[in-house]
Design brief:
This protein has about 475 residues and is mostly beta strands. Helices cover about 15% and strands about 40% of the residues. It has a 5-stranded antiparallel beta sheet with strand order 2-3-26-25-24, with no helix packed on it. The chain has a 5-stranded mixed beta sheet with strand order 27-33-32-29-30, with no helix packed on it. α2 runs antiparallel to α3, α2 runs antiparallel to α5 and α4 packs antiparallel against α5. The longest helix is centred in the C-terminal third of the chain and has 20 residues.
Length: about 475
């Protein structure tokens, strides 16, 4: 349960609404900026034993978060937990693997491995436990498979060296068609949206986008990096991750750059430029990439959650007892979503939601605090001042004190004239206090007549007209109140 703020000023409120051969974890410095990521840990190294690699060429994950890493020259696929613990290898059952080009995992946990030499490339299918199930040839269609990926409907998408389009297969390997043949130039990487069916294809130009039916929908404002794209991934929010030689970039769903990060001194083999290959993104946000120089292995980067920004809006002045709106809709989360919001009001009242209605019964100045939480549990608060003004009920003769003050301060040369006018106004005020509105109205009419009879040398004509107008209005209001 989220904590509640301690009440401040009393007021009345009403609601209206662990790894052998793995490299040790190196602590990473705090990162900053929207979409920040930092190095978490790595495993691997050159060799032929469990957990070692000879050119880790591809990486995929299953629904449980296990990783499948293609080990190109060791002719195998190794399976690891998300923390890098070695589990098993694929390639001991069925036809031998030869040069692992790509990996993909379907919704049932079956593993598809692109393998084979010149003219004999196939995709071999294995059960989750490693048992060989079947294979189908792909050389004539795509050549060496650069990348394979399952889309949201369970179709296997593939791009390779011999084709400028995306080839589509069903789970048994039967071809279903192609798309992108008129707009792609040397496609090398694929990414399919986890749920919306969107497909991204990285080629020698940049990144093209397609809908679930394979219809071309445009290109993102992203240019292919030197040496081309090495990996591509999408998360649940549609954000895009793309790797090149020595760096990884994160883009929003429209291709706007959010962050770029590269190996630093805190990572194994972190200085210099290293070649990333495969890329895999888990729902947790952790990003797994294979590196084929410096470190022969897998590096893991994790998101650095940025706190939300609470915005309680400008200070408000309202009338006590009347409904008003507290609007926190300008609050935002730079790298996620605001999932909860609470307004903490004086007296311990708490209202749920970014925008709420409330009533303050107590006149005065009060602090009101908005607290918001993001989808990673981080919180932020902002405070505004609410001034609740007392509502003064209008009463008959309410303008008399101001009129009397004006007469008392006016430059009237004859003292007797001022005193006579003030006496009439004082008597009218006394009548109002006794509830005699008829008497007060009569005295004001006499005041109007007396002011009108004064010569210009005794009272400025403009001031005389103002007083007569004010007195007439007050008198009419007194008559109407009877």
């Amino acid at each position: 349960m989220y904590p509640l703020a301690r009440p401040r000023t009393p007021a009345a409120w009403v609601l209206v609404i662990s790894l052998a051969l793995a490299l040790p974890v190196v602590a990473a410095p705090a990162a900053s900026g929207a979409g920040a990521y930092r190095y978490a840990f790595a495993w691997g190294g050159t060799g032929t034993g469990p957990g070692a690699f000879n050119y880790p060429s591809a990486i995929s994950s299953d629904a449980q978060g296990n990783l499948y890493v293609g080990d190109y020259y060791n002719n195998r696929v190794q399976k690891f937990t998300g923390t890098g613990s070695y589990l098993m290898r694929f390639g001991t059952s069925g036809p031998a693997l030869k040069n692992v080009h790509s990996t993909a995992v379907d919704g049932a946990g079956n593993v598809y491995v692109g393998t084979g030499g010149y003219g004999a490339t196939v995709i071999q299918k294995y059960a989750p436990g490693g048992t060989y199930l079947s294979s189908f040839p792909v050389w004539s269609a795509i050549g060496y498979p650069y990348d394979t990926e399952f889309d949201a409907t369970g179709r296997l998408l593939a791009v390779g060296t011999r084709s400028d389009c995306v080839h589509v297969f069903d789970a048994s390997g039967a071809p279903l068609g192609v798309f992108g043949q008129d707009v792609l130039f040397g496609p090398v990487e694929l990414a399919a949206g986890p749920s919306d069916g969107r497909v991204l294809v990285a080629d020698m130009i940049g990144i093209a986008t397609f809908d679930a039916d394979g219809t071309f929908t445009g290109r993102l404002p992203v240019t292919a990096p030197p040496y081309g794209f090495k990996g591509l991934a999408l998360n649940e929010r549609g954000e895009i991750f793309a790797s090149g030689r020595g760096h990884i970039a994160r883009y929003d769903a429209d291709g706007g750059l959010k962050a770029k990060f590269a190996p630093d001194a805190g990572e194994p083999n972190g200085t210099g430029v290293y070649d990333y290959r495969g890329m895999c993104l888990l729902p947790s946000g952790k990003l797994y990439v294979t590196q084929v120089d410096g470190l022969y292995g897998v590096k893991v980067y994790e998101p650095v959650n940025l706190p939300p920004v609470a915005d309680a809006g400008p200070d408000l002045t309202v009338r006590a007892g009347e409904t008003f709106v507290l609007d926190g809709s300008s609050s935002e989360d730079p790298d996620g979503t605001i999932v909860s919001a609470r307004w903490h009001l004086p007296g311990g009242t708490v209202l749920e939601g970014l925008t709420v209605q409330a009533v303050c019964q107590e006149p005065g100045v009060h602090e009101v605090t908005l607290t918001v939480w993001d989808d990673a549990g981080a919180e932020a608060s902002d405070t505004m001042l609410l001034t609740a003004e007392e509502v003064v009920e209008a009463r008959p003769g309410g303008g008399l004190p101001a009129l009397r003050a004006s007469v008392a301060d006016a430059p009237i040369p004859v003292k007797g004239v001022r005193n006579s006018l003030l006496v009439k106004l004082d008597h009218a005020l006394a009548d109002v206090d006794r509830g005699d509105t008829t008497g007060a109205a009569r005295r004001l009419r006499t005041f109007v007549s007396e002011v009108g009879a004064l010569p210009a040398k005794q009272l400025d004509p403009a001031l005389a007209r103002q007083w007569r107008s004010e007195a007439a209005i007050i008198s009419a209001a007194l008559d109407a109140s009877e």
